[in-house]
Amino acid sequence: MRGNQTTKADYIKRLADVVGDNPKLHEALVKKEGEYYELLKSTFYTQWSKEFFDRIVEAYLKGVSRWC
């Protein structure tokens, strides 16, 4: 039992849940620009620092690239 401890995988899953199967959101994360990227940033910056967001996005993209 983990209790209240949140892991990096939990944060990556949270981002993946938001992106889902939406190709526009996924593409925005890959390009790191555009309206959808700004939307994702504004959503997660309220919870995470810029540096943390960037690390989670990189980890998410590495994970996704393994499945493609």
SS-based class:
mainly alpha
Major beta sheet summary: none
Q: Low-confidence parts lasting 5 or more residues at pLDDT below 50?
A: none
Portion of residues in beta strands equals under 5%
Helix content: over 70%
Strands, helices and their partners?
Blueprint: H1 8-19, H2 23-31, H3 35-45, H4 50-67
Helix pairs in contact: 1-4, 2-3
List keywords for this structure.
68 residues, single chain
Describe this structure in words.
The chain is an all-alpha fold and 68 residues long. Helix content is 74%, strand content 0%. α1 (8-19) crosses α4 and α2 crosses α3 (35-45). The chain is globular, with a radius of gyration of 12 Å.
Short description:
This protein is an all-alpha fold. The chain is built from 4 helices and no strands.
